[in-house]
Amino acid sequence: MTSEPIPIQSIVTDDGSLTCRHPVYGEPYHALQGARTEAESKFILPSRLAERLRQGPLRLLDVGFGLGVNCRAAAQTARQTGGHVLSVDTVEADPDAWLRARTLYPECRLTRELTETGRYQDHFVQVTRHDGDLRQGLTHIEGPWDVVFHDPFSPLKNTECWTLDLFRLFFQKLSPDGLLLTYSESAAVRAGLLQAGFLIGTSPAVPPHRGGTLAARAAHQLTHPLDPSPFQIFPKNVPFRDQALADSGHSIRARREASVRSAVQ
Ligand SMILES: C[S@@+](CC[C@H](N)C(=O)[O-])C[C@H]1O[C@@H](n2cnc3c(N)ncnc32)[C@H](O)[C@@H]1O
Q: Residues lining ligand 1, CB < 6 A?
């Protein structure tokens, strides 16, 4: 990623909240049907964040911070709930993300303080910023987490964030009653989660948004469990692999394509 500031062209999504397109990945940071409503429907509601915060203090891993929409939605839920403290570790690889977030959401105190000091704290929320690639971050940021918002760009563009090898790290660092949430419905992603040891389920669609995938260690965390059998059959059972946790998305995609090709020959 370049450290030069990049011109930012904001996009007004259908619910009035703002997003923009990433110049390298070429994808918008959020669903154009609504950035704020996507955060609610894919992450806040299916994680039962408010209910969990009424029960006890909670640790959340937010991947990646991006424009801060999910992180802000989680902080707002904690304040509105008025329950136990929410501690958030937010991970972001792109140094330009902070500039984009501040340009699009200049009033946001959480983003400003994270940008300036790397920390944010109020009565109900504390957030710690972690710069760099999640794959290295996960090996040294201390868990366990009760909830993971896994929100990289898509598996076909940001493939390094969707591998079996990374999901194994998540599995080790998720608390026994924890829940990982993502918007992706990809078969390769679901196969990777299953092979890492997770049970999987869906988050119900909240129109105009589609549903996503949930992954847990304990079955009672999944209100809509998914039958694993389709993801045990070739080629849906072939996950993305990145054993060194250091390969480019391009190499990881090429490796999966080669292993699918060699199995059909
Ligand atoms: C879809 S955007 C996230 C949107 C964000 N959750 C929000 O609510 O505004 C994906 C983010 O993941 C970050 N990212 C991509 N690969 C990463 C990696 N390997 N480690 C950490 N962050 C990564 C990107 O730089 C980008 O900011």
A: 29, 39, 64, 66-70, 91-94, 97, 133-135, 151-153, 158, 160-161
